[in-house]
Design goal:
By secondary structure, the chain is of the alpha/beta class. It has two domains: about 40-290, Type I PLP-dependent aspartate aminotransferase-like (Major domain) (Aspartate Aminotransferase, domain 2), CATH 3.40.640; about 300-425, Aspartate Aminotransferase, domain 1. It is built from 16 helices and 15 strands. Strand 11 (about 320) and strand 12 form a beta hairpin. The protein binds pyridoxal-5'-phosphate. The site of pyridoxal-5'-phosphate has 15 residues, from helix 5.
Length: about 425
């Protein structure tokens, strides 16, 4: 970063500040992680200069012989990682990947059945403020008030009633795993496509730490920067391309196309222009890392740490949605502690502990206040935190939440947070 330092000192200064923030805080936002230095280097490469509309071997621009190899490397590694028949690594983000999924499978006005945003779903699964809810008719299933789990009998009941064109699975704040086989049965019973959005859990799925949606879903979308620990971006995958024909949806000419062909067109030219080749290179690096045995060890630890955190919170009298976790995150319902998500997030932030306020199912507060916080283990596990460190993390969070806003507690916890962070060094290549 030496040239940036002299070329643009103002911008460099902001990067230094952000590096320090990442180095000295507990990063507990469940959707965040720390990409490797190699991944970040690939993103900062000359590939940002190249236009490569189209796909390897079929580009609309000359000079693509090297970026073709880059994209093929990313695609082949991703296919191996997820045991997929086909992938598209061009989506700029998770939301862009999902836009292409809709374009491939649904016409405007048709019905999607997805997990309610207030019950852990995502904006792109039919929220009225998102293109998905604006363009399509969105219907929702949710979790049970008593258990916090999805009741699949009720999903079937709802599917029979609303007859969706597509059913979506996947969430950004659901601490439990999904039974894809049963979702497949439901989709088949009502003649719907089945779409899994594994944006949060892709890393855990790749390593077998969670159930595998690929054999059961018509299409799978993901981000590459959450548990997968790559650059900010998206991807679309198909498990069994051959058995999976979109037929009429696909083709005005009547020719039956494979899902993969339809999805490739839905990404480009359907919903994006030129791919971000520097980010695709970084995806290749991250997928290469994810194929190493250490990545499996990492994902196991992500899960073990989340379990430890759940136990520690419950031992301290906190109520967790679904009373535990199967994955990398927990959702704390703060109502029995007389707190809102907003107050908890703000006071933890002052002590250098970063979480996000989050609606809990059947929340009585507004989305700006909320009754819960969402806490995830992927980022701190990347730093090297194990169970004992997570017990300490919970102890420090509890100290703050017992007396939110107490300045002397905030100061003392902040000191402990920074001391622990210094024992688990993260990035040294901007500030060094
Ligand atoms: C994060 C997330 C997305 C969106 O990803 P972006 O890269 O932020 O666009 C989509 N779906 C789910 C389930 C997510 O958790």
């Amino acid at each position: 970063m030496d040239s940036l330092k002299t070329h643009d000192p103002e911008l460099y200064g902001y990067l230094e500040q952000e590096t320090e923030r990442q180095n000295l805080n507990f990063e507990l936002i469940a959707s965040e992680n720390f990409a490797s230095r190699a991944t970040i280097e690939a993103m900062g490469s000359v590939l940002t200069n190249k236009y490569a509309e189209g796909y390897p071997g079929k580009r609309y621009y000359g000079g693509c012989e090297h970026v073709d190899k880059v994209e093929d490397l990313a695609r082949n590694r991703a296919k191996k990682l997820f045991n997929a028949d086909w992938v598209n690594v061009q989506p700029h983000s998770g939301a862009s990947a999902n836009a292409a999924v809709y374009l491939a499978f649904m016409k405007p006005g048709e019905t999607l059945l997805g997990l309610d945003l207030a019950h852990g779903g995502h904006l792109t699964h039919g929220s009225p403020v998102n293109f998905s809810g604006i363009t399509y008719n969105a219907e929702f299933y949710g979790v049970e008030k008593e258990t916090g789990h999805i009741n699949l009998d009720k999903v079937l009941e709802k599917a029979k009633k609303v007859k969706p064109k597509m059913i979506s699975i996947g969430a950004s704040a659901y601490p439990r795993d999904f039974d894809y086989k049963v979702f497949r049965e439901i989709a088949d019973e009502v003649g719907a496509f089945l779409w899994m959005d594994m944006a949060h859990t892709a890393g855990l799925i790749a390593t077998g730490e969670l159930n595998d949606p690929l054999p059961w879903s018509d299409v799978i979308s993901t981000t590459t920067h959450k548990t997968l620990r790559g650059p900010r971006g998206g991807m679309i995958l198909v498990g069994n391309d051959g058995e999976n024909k979109l037929g009429v949806v696909a083709s005005k000419s009547g020719r039956v196309k494979n899902v993969s062909e339809v999805l490739d067109s839905a990404v480009f030219p359907g919903s994006q222009g030129g791919p971000l080749m520097h980010v695709i290179a970084a995806k290749a690096v991250a997928f290469g890392e994810a194929l190493q045995p250490e990545f499996k060890t990492y994902q196991k630890q992500v899960k073990t740490n989340a379990k430890r955190m759940a136990e520690e919170f419950m031992n301290r009298g906190y109520k967790l949605v679904s009373d535990g976790t199967d994955n990398h995150l927990i959702l704390v319902d703060l109502r029995n502690k007389g707190l809102t998500g907003k107050i908890a997030e703000e006071s933890l932030d002052k002590a250098g502990i970063t979480v996000n306020k989050n609606m809990v199912p059947f929340d009585t507060e507004s989305p700006f206040v909320t009754s819960g916080i969402r806490i995830g283990t992927p980022a701190l596990t990347t730093r090297g935190f194990e169970e004992d460190e997570f017990s300490e993390v919970v102890r420090l969070i509890d100290l703050i939440l017992q007396k939110p806003g107490d300045e002397s507690i905030i100061t003392s916890v902040k000191g402990d947070v920074q001391a622990m962070c210094k024992n688990f060094p993260l990035y040294d290549f901007i500030t060094a």
